[in-house]
Amino acid sequence: MKKRLLVLPMLLLSLILVSCGKTEGNDATGENTEPKLVGSLSEIMDSVYESADLSQDFRDAMAGFEAGEIPAESAEYLIGTADVEYAESYYSIPMINVNPYQCILLRLPEGADVEAAKETLLANADPRKWVCVEAESVVVENVGDVILFLMADTATADAIKASFLALGE
Question: Average pLDDT in the 63-81 region?
Answer without folding.
Answer: 94
